[in-house]
Design goal:
It is a single chain. The chain contains 25 helices and 18 strands. By secondary structure, it is α/β, with parallel strands linked by helices. The chain has three domains: 173 residues, 3-Layer(aba) Sandwich (Rossmann fold), CATH 3.40.50; 167 residues, Rossmann fold; 171 residues, Thiamin diphosphate (ThDP)-binding fold, Pyr/PP domains (Rossmann fold, 3-Layer(aba) Sandwich), CATH 3.40.50.970. Helix 10 packs across helix 16 and helix 12 packs parallel to helix 16. 51% of the residues are buried.
Length: 573
């Protein structure tokens, strides 16, 4: 029972509820206890996880699936430091997230100076999180609660989405509201000011219409915009090949004859060839970062006129490659304007398109080793693809070889099969808690969590959170007893992998059973089909551990010093 009524935390709960927040993701602690109680009193659901990372990634996934800001809450000190990784993921992958952190009282914060620590479990939260958030504020006065919280919330969805942080001292949480506060909203929607002239649209369209090898690159900006039919219209009108970035996977049907997969460091070989050989490249909401372009930036789409459409002006002002048109505009606005001025479809190089399609059908990525007695990664994922069929599925991956195999070999479709992973921050342990958040957001869908033996260990405690909720999450553990992607890098560069090869992993099937999750382990190809069938048909949480070939690499791969047309083909045996 609270000692006082009408505290600032009550106002916070009312405000967040008015913004559509009906649940908060958290790991509890003393400095956020007043907030927790206020949310409970206002009938906001409290979702408690087994760690701050678990809560953060579940909130992040819920936000990515729904497209709406979610709230994560942690206590001061270790609560803050433990949630830094999910915050970084939200920042680099443009996910709307409001992080509320507890903090010690303002007396110590404002009076005691030049000491290492001013209170128990205190850390300099704002200094830690500011580089990883769009907005960060420590609420040192009651007035700041009413001014800064709305600003923080609006920043999460204004322009390029991302996280904001509110650091909430204990004494300010427990301040009694003296009068009805005035909400100061200092943020306006920056998209309203973004326009492009008719003549500029016409000039871009003219180059597109004259091109023979046009390619459209869809990034996460295109995926989050959700204008999937518009991309089909533009592709058809331009008669263009379509590729995606790693985070843009799912914005175009990968089974379409137009779609060649995703580009870059571990991209599909045929997709890289398409960009390397194109003469017109329309980039919609992708950053053109190092993992997309490769290190030889002068060779990236060197024969193409590049049109780069992005909502982030800072990205446009700092291009890695030579760009003909840098257009600061929302993807939807650009596509609508572009379609209006396209007069005719171009005469695409049909032989080029057919050549790419034939290369796609040859499936040159991760070719199974027929001489091996082990289960091959691509053969496993082919079985999973067949099981997925027309089931509405969200694929969530960890970080490692399995992440790239799943991106290459599972089917993705805007209306059926979605893809979610840690891109810019590349965090092992993203997988399981994010799968839980995705399943919470869409309980009617199947969530397939594809994870490696190294990545799963990072947040394995969230098996308890999964079992408690009995969500429809299928965990596919691709166990190669190796930290594969780093091992591969070490072997290519130095010829040995002393820290990542022969990675001793536990029996995940038995661990899952200990948490109450039904599970099985597969070691032989002969039993794979029947076990995948069981795995897919089992309702509720389930885990299938598959022992795959420890020598399997992600091949081909774009290495330093190579252009998109050149990819490392694998280790010489």
């Amino acid at each position: 029972m609270k000692l006082m009524k009408n505290l600032t935390v009550d106002w916070v709960a009312d405000y967040l509820k008015s913004k559509g927040i009906d649940r908060v993701f958290l790991y509890p602690g003393g400095t956020i206890a007043p907030l927790i109680n206020a949310f409970i009193d206002k009938d906001i659901l409290i979702d408690v996880f087994k760690s701050e990372q678990g809560a953060g990634y579940a909130a992040l996934a819920y936000a990515r699936v729904t497209g709406k800001t979610q709230v994560c809450m942690v206590t001061s000190g270790p609560g803050v430091t433990n949630v830094i990784s999910p915050l970084a993921d939200a920042y680099y992958d443009s996910t709307p997230l409001l992080l509320i952190t507890g903090q010690i009282g303002t007396a110590d914060l404002t009076i005691r100076k030049n000491v290492r620590q001013r209170g128990f479990q205190e850390t300099p939260t704002i200094e830690l999180v500011k580089p990883l958030s769009k907005y960060a504020s420590c609420l040192l006065t009651e007035e700041q609660v009413y001014t800064d919280l709305p600003i923080a919330f609006n920043h999460t969805v204004d322009g390029r989405k991302g996280p904001s942080v509110i650091d909430f001292p204990m004494d300010i949480q427990r301040t009694e509201v003296s009068e009805t506060p005035t909400i100061y909203n200092k943020v306006t929607n920056s998209l309203q000011a973004l326009t492009l002239s008719f003549d500029a649209f016409k000039e871009v369209a003219r180059y597109g219409e004259c091109s023979k090898r046009p390619v459209i690159l869809l990034g996460q900006g295109a995926l989050s915009s959700g204008e999937f039919n518009l991309y089909i219209e533009v592709a058809n009108k331009l008669n263009a090949i379509v590729v995606t970035s790693f985070l843009g996977i799912g914005s175009f049907d990968t089974n379409s004859d137009r779609c060649m997969g995703y580009i870059g460091h571990t991209g599909n070989q045929v997709a890289n060839h398409a960009v390397n050989e194109c003469d017109f490249l329309l980039v919609l909401g992708a950053r053109l970062d190092l993992r997309q372009t490769g290190t030889v930036v002068d060779e990236f789409a060197k024969n193409a006129d590049i049109v780069w459409v992005d909502i982030d002006a800072n990205e446009l002002e700092n291009p890695r490659v030579s760009v003909k048109w840098k257009i600061h505009l929302d993807v939807k606005k650009f596509c609508n304007g572009f379609l209006e001025v396209l007069d005719k479809s171009n005469t695409c190089d049909k032989d080029w398109h057919e050549g790419l399609l034939n290369l796609k059908k040859q499936k040159t990525d991760d070719v199974p080793n027929k001489e091996s007695n082990y289960i091959q990664p691509r053969e496993l994922l082919d079985q999973i693809s067949n099981a997925m069929n027309n089931d509405s599925t969200i694929v969530v991956t960890g970080v490692g070889c399995h992440q790239h195999w799943a991106a290459r070999h599972l089917p993705y479709n805007p209306n059926l099969h979605a893809h979610m992973t840690s891109g810019g921050h590349g965090t092992m342990g993203y997988d399981l808690p994010s799968s839980i958040g995705a399943a919470m957001a869409c309980p009617e869908k199947t969530v397939l969590c594809v994870v490696g033996d190294g990545s799963l260990l990072m947040n394995i405690q969230e098996l308890a959170s999964l079992c408690e909720r009995q969500l429809n999450v299928k965990i596919l553990v691709m166990n190669n007893s190796r930290l594969g992607i780093v091992s591969q890098f070490q072997l290519i560069t130095w010829g040995s992998d002393p820290t990542t090869g022969d990675f001793i992993s536990p029996n995940f099937s038995e661990i899952a059973k200990g948490f109450g999750v039904p599970s099985k382990r597969v070691e032989l190809m002969s039993s794979l089909y029947s076990q995948v069938d069981w795995f897919w048909k089992e309702s509720g949480p389930v885990l299938l551990e598959v022992m795959i070939d420890p020598d399997s690499d992600v091949t081909p791969m774009l290495l330093a010093g190579q252009n998109l047309g050149e990819m490392w083909e694998g280790r010489i045996s």
